[in-house]
Amino acid sequence: MRSCVKVLATAAVSLMLTAGGAQANEYQARLQALATEKLAVLAADPVVVSAVKAQNEAHAAYDAAKIDELDKAWRAEVAGGGGATTNGMLANALSKHLLSVRDGSAGLYAEIFVMDNKGLNVGISNMTSDYMQGDEDKWQKTFSVGADAVLVDEVEQDESSGTFVSQVSVTVVDPETKAPIGALTVGVDVEKLQ
């Protein structure tokens, strides 16, 4: 019976996507509530905040050329099945924490990643295709907008898993200054929303 319900839910989401309903995103209200009730709390977690602050300080002198160099190296490692930088990112304390949160979400969170004030990955639960996220809405419409910014992206089908996911992003804020210091993005499996 459970698999039958899953098939029906998947068919309903597929129909919504093919009918252009993804533009209206019928999950918007629930995803917005998730962002403000749970994801903002995760973004304020001391593990997240301290890792972002540390990376912001460590990368303060990075310019566009350095960021481009790092992003190209990251992409090459991903294409080659891993390397020192990508494996190091997966093994850092923040990534382990995000993986634990993802795994404890009963499948609701497909992926979680955190970016610094330049849009660079700080921690990831899953490998990302690129290191630099700062040229994407998930960073530009949160960190660049301000402390309370939330972005709920369109629902898309993840081809590798067959799930329907919306990326929901919030700003990471320094609790002392209330200034934006980074961003957090969570891929939410919309079929698992309550």
Write a concise synopsis of the structure shown.
By secondary structure, the chain is of the alpha+beta class.
Structure commentary:
This protein has 194 residues and is α+β, with helices and mostly antiparallel strands. It contains seven helices and five strands; from the N terminus they run ααααααββαβββ. Strands 2-1-5-4-3 form a five-stranded antiparallel beta sheet.
What would the keywords be for this entry?
194 residues, alpha+beta, 5-stranded antiparallel β-sheet, 7 helices, 5 strands, 44% helix, globular, disordered N terminus
Topology overview:
Elements: H1 2-18, H2 28-43, H3 46-58, H4 64-79, H5 84-91, H6 93-103, E1 109-115, E2 121-124, H7 137-140, E3 150-157, E4 164-173, E5 180-189
Antiparallel strand pairs: 1-2, 1-5, 3-4, 4-5
| Average pLDDT metric | 87
DSSP helix fraction: 40-55%
Which secondary-structure class do the elements indicate? alpha+beta
Strand order of the largest sheet: 2-1-5-4-3
Radius of gyration: 17 Å
- Largest sheet features: 5 strands, antiparallel
Element order, helices and strands? HHHHHHEEHEEE
| Alpha plus pi helix count | 7
Uncertain ranges: 1-24
Query: Based on DSSP secondary structure assignment, what is the total number of beta strands?
Result: 5
Q: Identify the overall geometry.
A: globular
Spatial separation of the terminal alpha carbons: 19 Å
Beta content: 15-25%
